[in-house]
Design a protein that fits this description.
alpha/beta, Rossmann fold, 8 helices, about 35% helix, binds zinc ion
Length: about 220
């Protein structure tokens, strides 16, 4: 029945390419070819930024609680538009596109994680959007890497980050997550989110997981701002 409903929805309102608007797919072949995805071998292993020089200017001098980061692409069209449509316009048909890009970025870590965990949105954000936008991304990566998707974290306190400077963001996020009371935290945890900006959110999540027994935390985002 669900399949019939999906097919009907595709006829009435087909999913459109996040790049050019062409109906039929979330990202058409031409726009996919033109999207500047980050080649993982050339990216900064610490923060996932695309770096041309031998030292990364994005994360210099900063210690992260996570040991490595991977990002699928830069936060620019068509990726940024796909994320906006998915998150803020509740166009959930973009989940598989974003999930598969994220999985590609994590491919070199296959065999490493014991579980994949999403950065949980705040309750207010989940209510506003009507769904948990990061959960589907974690499910896609976990299924692809053949490990469990585990809801290990709760958003404890998450003041708006947008007006804060870099150092304030890290301080702000240090206690932003709690590990769920019934959670069994495995040794190697891969944490995923839609966007990595300063790394403060991932840092806060990694801190909570390490304090609860994780040995190592790596992180991955669809886009690097
Ligand atoms: Zn297109
Ligand atoms: Zn870096």
């Amino acid at each position: 029945m669900l399949g019939v409903l999906h097919a009907f929805a595709e006829i009435v309102s087909p999913v459109c390419c996040a790049g050019c608007g062409l109906p039929g797919s979330a990202l058409c072949a031409r726009c996919r070819a033109g999207a500047r995805l980050i080649t993982q071998g050339d990216a900064c292993p610490r923060c996932g930024a695309a770096v041309e020089a031998s030292t990364c200017t994005e994360c210099g001098g900063r210690d992260f609680a996570f040991s490595a980061a991977a990002c699928a692409g830069r936060l620019e069209p068509p990726l940024s538009r796909a994320i906006t449509l998915y998150k803020d316009a509740a166009e959930r048909r973009y989940a598989s596109l974003l999930g598969s890009l994220l999985l590609d970025a994590c491919e070199r870590w296959r065999g490493w994680p014991d579980a994949v965990c999403a950065i949980p949105p705040t309750r207010a954000a989940r209510v506003r959007r009507g769904f948990d936008h990061t959960e589907a991304l974690a499910h896609a990566v976990a299924a692809g890497l053949k490990v469990p998707s585990a809801g290990l974290l709760d958003a404890a306190r998450r003041p708006d980050q947008r007006r804060l400077g870099r150092d304030a963001r890290f301080a702000n996020m240090a206690e932003a997550f709690t590990v769920r009371r019934d959670a069994q935290v495995p040794g190697h945890v891969l944490v995923v989110d839609d966007v990595l900006t300063t790394g403060a959110t991932f840092d806060g999540a990694a801190r909570a997981l390490l304090a609860a027994g994780a040995i190592e935390v790596r992180v991955a985002a669809v886009a690097r701002a």
